[in-house]
Amino acid sequence: MDMLQTIDVGLVVLDKAYNIQVWNSFMENHSGLVPTQVKDKNLFTLFPSIDEDWFKRKAETVFLLKNRSFIAWEQKPYLMRFKNYRPITGTEAFMYQNVTISPLASADGQIGHICIIIYDVTDIASNRKALESANAELARLSRTDRLTQLFNRGFWEECLVKEFNRFQRYQHTCSLIMFDIDHFKRVNDTYGHQAGDEVIKTVSEVLRSCLRKTDIAGRYGGEEFGVILVDTDTEGAQIFAERLRAAIEALTVRYETTTIRFTISLGVSALELGIPNYKAWLERADQALYKSKHLGRNKTTLFVPE
């Protein structure tokens, strides 16, 4: 019993009615309840946060089959919510726990009690979460354009391929917008590349404010952008494009002591049967974009097959 009191794991013994018979020092220290307070008390009365039905299903298999049962923190973060006192992982709100439920046989071989062993695995859980968070951030950075925080060309083009393939199967409505900043070279030559970067960032901010959750926007390269409008026909895409064009036209970008005004030109192409591949779809939107340029810029042009 002295050993059970000093080990650095929680140890609880329950009878078949789920009344507590043993409660070691680990449990006392973390729960604030001394053994005399919990002896012969029902586990679920003392800890109502425990899912009674779920725990009984786990425990009944131990009583019946006389085999151990395990609960990993990935399945359920904890059995009893204890505060986390770990100095290194002190940012965690609670103690993460692995739990083992073992049968305890009496002299006649009957299982009248079960033993719950609770392991503090907060360090392991915290490190795993930090690693997963870092991997998620690396994945995000690998598909994000650093200047605009939009998708980069590689990932955006992967999305374009997926939408094209989805159309081939389901024929859902989908439209593509390609646009770029008018006379952007003049902005760079007149005000400098840092001012040009500020213009690009401002365009991306306005674009993000116009997007729905299902829309997919990316920086295609330099001052050119692409937007995939899922479940949007030509009319809806034109409305989106005109709203974006008008918002950009009304903008004034201030860089240091300089005021910069600019416009964008846009091309729209709806996805249709007969388009052989995603590159042809992209080419149609580009053709419409360059027609907007030819017609005087600051325009939206729909692709119309000749």
Automatic annotation (TrEMBL):
<dbReference type="InterPro" id="IPR000014">
    <property type="entry name" value="PAS"/>
</dbReference>
<protein>
    <recommendedName>
        <fullName>diguanylate cyclase</fullName>
        <ecNumber>2.7.7.65</ecNumber>
    </recommendedName>
</protein>
<dbReference type="GO" id="GO:0043709">
    <property type="term" value="P:cell adhesion involved in single-species biofilm formation"/>
</dbReference>
<dbReference type="InterPro" id="IPR050469">
    <property type="entry name" value="Diguanylate_Cyclase"/>
</dbReference>
<dbReference type="InterPro" id="IPR013767">
    <property type="entry name" value="PAS_fold"/>
</dbReference>
<dbReference type="InterPro" id="IPR043128">
    <property type="entry name" value="Rev_trsase/Diguanyl_cyclase"/>
</dbReference>
<dbReference type="Pfam" id="PF00989">
    <property type="entry name" value="PAS"/>
</dbReference>
<dbReference type="InterPro" id="IPR035965">
    <property type="entry name" value="PAS-like_dom_sf"/>
</dbReference>
<dbReference type="InterPro" id="IPR000160">
    <property type="entry name" value="GGDEF_dom"/>
</dbReference>
<dbReference type="InterPro" id="IPR029787">
    <property type="entry name" value="Nucleotide_cyclase"/>
</dbReference>
<dbReference type="GO" id="GO:0005886">
    <property type="term" value="C:plasma membrane"/>
</dbReference>
<dbReference type="GO" id="GO:0052621">
    <property type="term" value="F:diguanylate cyclase activity"/>
</dbReference>
<dbReference type="GO" id="GO:0006355">
    <property type="term" value="P:regulation of DNA-templated transcription"/>
</dbReference>
<feature type="domain" description="GGDEF">
    <location>
        <begin position="172"/>
        <end position="305"/>
    </location>
</feature>
<dbReference type="GO" id="GO:1902201">
    <property type="term" value="P:negative regulation of bacterial-type flagellum-dependent cell motility"/>
</dbReference>
<dbReference type="Pfam" id="PF00990">
    <property type="entry name" value="GGDEF"/>
</dbReference>
